[in-house]
Amino acid sequence: MTNPAKQMNKQAGSQPVSLRALFPRITIVCLIIAWLVVGIFSLWGAQWLSEPLDNTIAIICFVVLFATIIMASFGVVGEADHLAHQLGEPYGTLILTLSIVSIEVILIASVLLGPGEFPTIGRDAIFSVMMIILNLVTGLCLLFGGLRYGEQEYNAQGAVTYLSMIIVLTGLALVLPNYVSGAGEFGFVQAVAFSIVTIAVYGLFLWMQIGGYSRLFIQPVSGCMTVAAGAQDELHQDEVTSSVLDKRAIIIRSVILIAMILPIVLLAHDLAILIDYGIQTVNAPVALGGVLIAIIVFTPESITAVKAALNNEMQRAINLCLGAFVSTVGLTVPAVLIIGLVMNKTVVMGISGVETVLFLLTVVLTGFSFIGQKTSPIQGILHLALFAVFSVLLFST
């Protein structure tokens, strides 16, 4: 017998999505502001940011650029999140993660190609992302999700797969260079070979993630599901299917996503100049540049991950956190090494001894956090403690 609610859902789902739903007022406003800032800096940016920079103008420009890029990043996350719900897991989260990481690669490339010399910007950004995503954001997800729901379920096989990728790719990228050369650099042949290996491993991982092993990255279904719950799940699946069939909505969302990313690309160079100027002016730690890039890029996705944990979607939170860092290493490391080779720029990848200890503590703690079938809020507190240690050491070493 046909379920009336299900039949109504199918009929509603078959209706095309209205343009008003696809273009909410806030999206239009964000697009207009972002492209207006691009236009303004295209006309007068070179004059404002030419040497010698005025401190007042530099601060105003930095605030405007920082706010615009953050706003556009939130827009990217919003559109990618819509696509995530339409396409389902793990495709949706993958689109969101790749969109965000592409922004990070653009910002790092802009700093590398800028006027100053920042040989460690790639390393600093990757390590900062690791501390922020694997300790701060993961800690908040485990703590807040645990306080609201107690122990939350997730797919342990997928979490272990992510962690294995993190240990191997990050260890090779950030720890191995210290033992290849005393300066923490890769030689020409080593840089080429390591870039190829990283791209190949990450590409195979993506192929398996969206292919035959996609089940490892999907929220496990409880075996004691009731008939009513099963019917609700079937209804939800029908909603997803009908959304996927609306190709117009997917195409329009994708266009908006690109329209939100482009202003970030066009403004990244100007922001890189101001980051360079600010670090030199206030004599701040060089690693602060990497931290700023990590904050700019991953703030929107971090909020999305915490919201997922609060909605009892721990697998989605894990996909966002661990998946984001896997993508960061898989895409950023080859990009930084290739830019260094092509532009004849010095690229230092090896982290310090103190950072190596933090790296080891982070991967071991993350392994213990996701080695079982359910999360624990106590692990979240430990992750947050590690992030606090990183924050103190950033300005005291």
Molecular structure report:
79% of the residues lie in helices and 0% in strands. With 397 residues, the protein is mainly alpha-helical. It has a single domain, classed as A middle domain of Talin 1, CATH 1.20.1420. The chain is globular, with a radius of gyration of 22 Å. Residues 1-16 and 223-245 have low confidence and may be disordered.
Give the gist of this structure.
This protein has 397 residues and is mostly helical. It has helices spanning 4-13, 19-22, 25-48, 55-87, 91-112, 121-149, 156-175, 177-180, 188-209, 227-245, 247-282, 287-310, 314-342, 353-369, 377-396.
Give the % helix: over 70%
Going by CATH, the homologous superfamily would be NCX, central ion-binding region
Number of helices: 15
- Are there runs of 5+ residues with pLDDT below 50, and where? 1-16, 223-245
Radius of gyration: 22 Å
What is the top-level CATH class? Mainly Alpha
How much of the polypeptide forms β-strand, as a percent range? under 5%
Question: Can you tell me the CATH architecture?
Answer: Up-down Bundle
